């Protein structure tokens, strides 16, 4: 009985360690991904500069002759 | 007296065969009394020079050809002139094979089916395309489809003509094919530069969407339906960007408008749209003229991908490889080679300059500033390249930080693909049987998907597929697809990425 209890507690411990390891790995990945997000925030915003259209651009006329 | 029989006769349909003359213009008659304009028109000289560069040796000239675009111009405009403009054109076919009329006769009159097919193949192998020649003074070049330049340049760059498509041509009972994009010269009656640039762009995208290609007459009428800045639509005095957008909408397509920002920004837009089969219209301001001009970008010239300049950014951008663009410029001709450069305006602003050149020559024909990019797109393709790239940089930087061994080696490329084409090519992606099956039979894809492709020098690393019917790239990820170079030992990192970006993990 005691032997069985000990075995079960060892298994639980192993599972906990595995879980902690996974959580810490996931946390690490999460931190890295967050860091990356911060790194490129400015670049991602700059990509959309061309979407700002000044009103006068719509009237830009193309009439170059041959 | 007896009145003449006018218009009762059919014009002769003789086909002539001649060698490519040193000057193509020498077979075109100079208009009587023309003193103000230069003769021959630059477009004729350019066409002869381009065909010679492709290795053209022989011209087959159809004397009576009804061109859909020209006859529409006649119906809208020229039929009401005092001059009796014919409603038909010449059509010149260009071949790299030297042959004379006698040989041509024997090729087309062959009755044995096997030998006839051999003859067709002989002509097909040397077929360079065609040009409709309109009976218009000073503007003879009508619908012209020519083969593009070869894929490799003599100096080691690559040419990619994503704006080209296949055309079927019927000549003397033979069916021939040519891959290119239709070009024509503005006639200043029905069309101006903007009309022909948009017409070329629509030639690529309209057929693949099951839409009819509008003629220049259709475009001019649609563009001037609501806005008439010059007071009248015909003769055409050019179009504004607003009118180009209006004509694009009338053709059943949607035109995102992108302002010219900088060389880095603009070349990325041009690369992504042309590579996806959506040739954009470029609104440009020539440096030597007050008038704006419009051209159509058909392809790009690609050199080496440049290294990143920011030490905190660990990926490279495929768009840095773009060193030139091939334009349909109706002042010159098809596939005009153009270099892209940064240019500082008087106000200190830095913009993209186009240096347009003669074929096979370093001499500059014209320099112009890129003002705007207008892309005729299918209406349901709502995700812009800019937004796709915004997500691409975020994905690439994350992957670079997760795999220090790939830092500085990852290259991002953004492109639209048909969902069906992506599935068709997926068997070669190195996916597991489960992953491949899930992609083919268990993942919903939009008609067009935005594809962010991450590669390393040894091969592809990761594809991110985005629902292109959405406006925002995030959160609209449909799938993250592991490619051959993603390490087998790091599948948990792929799953972590899926947790961040959403979508299905395919590995």
Report on the architecture of this protein:
The complex is a heterodimer of chains A (66) and B (507). Chain A is built from 2 helices and 1 strand, in the order ααβ. With 66 residues, chain A is mainly α. Chain A has a domain at 2-43. The termini of chain A are far apart. The mean pLDDT of chain A is 80. Chain B has helices spanning 42-53, 68-76, 101-108, 113-125, 193-208, 216-223, 241-250, 263-275, 385-402, 419-425, 433-441, 491-501, and strands spanning 15-19, 58-65, 89-95, 127-133, 141-146, 158-160, 165-171, 174-180, 239-240, 257-259, 281-286, 293-302, 315-317, 322-329, 333-344, 350-357, 364-374, 410-418, 448-456, 459-467, 477-482, 504-506. The radius of gyration of chain B is 25 Å and the shape is globular. The model of chain B has no long low-confidence stretch (mean pLDDT 94).
Features:
heterodimer; A: 66 residues; mainly alpha; 2 helices; B: 507 residues; alpha+beta; Cathepsin B, Chain A; 3 domains; six-stranded mixed sheet; 12 helices; 26% helix; 29% strand; globular
Briefly characterize the structure.
Chain A is mostly helical and 66 residues long.
For the sheet with most strands of chain A, the description reads: none
How many helical elements of chain B? Answer: 12
Share of helical residues of chain B: 25-40%
Indicate the percent of residues in helices of chain A.
over 70%
Strand content of chain A: under 5%
Q: Largest interface, per-chain counts?
A: A-B, 33 and 63 residues
Give the topology, please:
The complex is a heterodimer of chains A (66) and B (507).
Chain A: H1 2-46, H2 55-58, E1 61-62
Chain B: E1 15-19, H1 42-53, E2 58-65, H2 68-76, E3 89-95, H3 101-108, H4 113-125, E4 127-133, E5 141-146, E6 158-160, E7 165-171, E8 174-180, H5 193-208, H6 216-223, E9 239-240, H7 241-250, E10 257-259, H8 263-275, E11 281-286, E12 293-302, E13 315-317, E14 322-329, E15 333-344, E16 350-357, E17 364-374, H9 385-402, E18 410-418, H10 419-425, H11 433-441, E19 448-456, E20 459-467, E21 477-482, H12 491-501, E22 504-506
